[in-house]
Write a structure and sequence with these properties.
about 90 residues, mainly beta, 3-stranded antiparallel beta sheet, 2 helices
Amino acid sequence: MSSLKLGRRTSEIEVTNVSRHGFWLLAGERELFLAYEEFPWFRDAAVKDVFNVEQPTPDHFYWPGLDVDLGLETIEHPERFPLRAK
C-alpha cells in the first residue's frame, strides 16, 4: 500500500508560530522569523492581525489590520534598515 501524493499548498504565505519573541512566516519554501525587537509593530498586535497577512508581490508582505508593509529584504536583513517605530 502506498501513500497518496500530497496536494498543492493552498496558501503561499502563512504565519506558522507566534512566540513571546516574535513569529515565523512561511512564504513559499522560505521560513522567516520576525523578532519583535526588530519589528515592534507586531509586539502588542492581536494574534488575528498577525495571522492576517497578504503577499501582493513575491517580495512584499502586507498586514492590513496593522497597516504594515514589509519587503522580503527588510525581513531577511533588518540591520540594513535601522528606522524603527517607537
